[in-house]
Amino acid sequence: MPLIVEQRILAPRVSWLRVAAPEVAAKAEPGQFVMVRLDEKAERIPLTIVEADREEGTIVLVIQEVGRSTADLVRLRAGDTIRDLLGPLGRPTEIERVGTVVCVGGGIGVAPILPQARRHREVGNRVLGIIGAQTKELLILEEEMRAGCERLLVTTDDGSYGRKGLVTDALAELLAEEQAIASVTAIGPVPMMQAVAELTRPYGIKTIVSLNPIMVDGSGMCGSCRVTVAGATKFACVDGPEFDGHAVDFVELRRRQSFYREEERRAVAAAGEGCRCRNA
After folding, report:
1. DSSP symbol at 69
2. Is the Cβ–Cβ distance between 176 and 151 less than 8 Å?
3. Which of 31, 120, 155, 229 could form a disulfide with 93 if both were Cys (CB 3.0 to 4.6 A apart)?
4. Strands (DSSP E) along 68-134, which ranges?
5. Any idea which fold 4-89 has?
6. What is the model's pLDDT at position 279?
7. Mean pLDDT of the chain
8. Which residues, 6 or more positions from 228, have their beta carbon under 8 angstroms from its beta carbon?
9. pLDDT grade, residue 222 (50/70/90)?
10. Are the CB atoms for 210 and 241 separated by under 8 Å?
11. Starting at the edge strand that comes first in sequence, how are the strands of the sheet with 45-48 ordered?
């Protein structure tokens, strides 16, 4: 079973894990993910591979507590193990030298946008970054993003750090300033990615979003992660997770994301009654 070799807290309810997974690390590319199952009774969770160290044989995962299974994962510490870890899955990000690119990460989406910013810089692109969170304490991986970008704009909803506003406000500013943006990649909450796509649409700028719909097996067999792109049905786990943001049916995606909200609420309530918590 994969061993957690290092753990740290990035923000409240957000954990950074370095996991020993040499076979995954040997093949992982930016944009890909793993399916994780903590134990035999847990559900499978898709998590983006934030970093892969081929020599060390480890990968980095960033997890935000949003439900029962992610709450259990966030509590893991160095020395703990994970029952199942399958990957790398999904199509790698298509990155080539194109000029100026903008990488936008909102909330936990800063974690998966980081490896893309790094790879863009490696191939010679000029990387402009935008990251944001609701408050300063919820902002993650700022220094890592700053190191991977020529310029980084930071926003917080409440103005407690950086500039007050949304990442889309900062993007609108860049779109007005920059005359030769080749592409924009946005990862974060669905409403944010939709707003980014609408901002770039009048400019005709290639816009990529990374979708994280409900997934069960990560192989395309269950069909839970289906999304509509340019009128056609796609499966995020095998056809994505990245798609043309201007072609995604975001209305359908947002509706599907809420399918199991009541079941998740009951699972969290049950966990509170018989919690498997450990001391921090």
Report:
1. H
2. no
3. 31
4. 84-89, 100-106, 126-133
5. Elongation Factor Tu (Ef-tu); domain 3 (2.40.30)
6. 34
7. 91
8. 234, 248, 249, 252, 253
9. confident
10. yes
11. 45-48, 33-37, 84-89
State the alpha helices, DSSP H only, in the chain: 22-25, 68-74, 110-122, 142-148, 167-177, 190-200, 236-239, 250-257, 261-273
Looking at residue 262, its pLDDT comes to: 61
pLDDT tens, 27-48? 999 999 999 999 888 888 999 9
Highest mean pLDDT pick, 206-210, 234-238, 259-263: 206-210
9-13's contacts with Cβ under 8 Å and 24+ in sequence apart are 10/62, 10/140, 10/141, 11/133, 11/137, 11/138, 11/139, 11/140, 12/137, 12/138, 13/64, 13/65, 13/74
**CA atoms of 204 and 28, how far apart (whole Å):** 31
Where do we find the tokens 């847990």?
Answer: 42
Mean pLDDT of 83-106: 96
Structure tokens at 173: 């500013």
CA 198 to chain centre: 20
| Domain edges within the chain | 4-89, 100-210
Give the DSSP per-residue string, 195-255.
HHHHHHGGGT-EEEEE-----SSSSSSS-TTEEEETTEEEEHHHH-SEEETTTB-HHHHHH
Q: How far is CA 29 from CA 26, 116, 189, 204, 208, in A?
A: 9, 9, 22, 27, 17
Pick 125 or 68 by higher pLDDT: 125
Identify residue 266 by its one-letter amino acid code.
R
Residue 212 φ then ψ, to 5°: -130, 65
Report phi then psi at 187, rounded to 5.
-135, 130
> CA–CA separation, 10 vs 16, rounded Å?
6
Length of the chain: 280
Per-residue pLDDT, 280: 33
